[in-house]
Amino acid sequence: MKPTVLLFNIPPRKQGTIRVLAMRLRLRVLVAAPEHFAAPLEKVLQGEADAMPAASFSEEMLVMAGLPDAVLELFLKGLRQQKATVALKAVLTDTNRCWSAVELHQELRRERDAITAGETAHQM
């Protein structure tokens, strides 16, 4: 699979910024349609996702698939430099490749909430 960045709910202006950065790093960018949010991530990345009943979320999310470590670091650094922040980011793994975007979104939110709760508890 060609190194790919899969976008969910990213506004057009930010998509443009991400596309320019991705082009410099020779990454493919795919924008997931809402009808594919319930399909397995692997199928969406392969362009084989069937339209599924509406299962959705509104937060921005980004999935990086097949990026070598050095390219991943450059991509993340570029996002920070361009101020193209996306709160929910994930790397495609053997564990999550069969998850839907909705499932991944739920897991990333749980992780973010746990980190936030831990930081709050630590500050007290």
Can you give a write-up of this model?
The structure is a single chain. This protein is α/β, with parallel strands linked by helices. The protein has one domain. The protein has helices at 12-24, 41-46, 69-81, 101-123; strands at 4-8, 28-31, 61-65, 88-91.
Short description:
By secondary structure, the protein is α/β, with parallel strands linked by helices. The chain is built from four helices and four strands.
User: Uncertain segments of ≥5 residues (pLDDT<50)?
Assistant: none
The overall strand count is 4
Based on secondary structure, the structural category is: alpha/beta
Task: Report the portion of residues in β strands.
Answer: 5-15%
SSE pattern, N- to C-terminal: EHEHEHEH
How many whole angstroms does the radius of gyration measure?
Answer: 15 Å
Helical content stands at: 40-55%
Topology record:
Elements: E1 4-8, H1 12-24, E2 28-31, H2 41-46, E3 61-65, H3 69-81, E4 88-91, H4 101-123
Parallel strand pairs: 1-2, 3-4
Antiparallel strand pairs: 1-3
Question: What are the main properties of this structure?
Answer:
124 residues; four-stranded mixed β-sheet; 4 helices
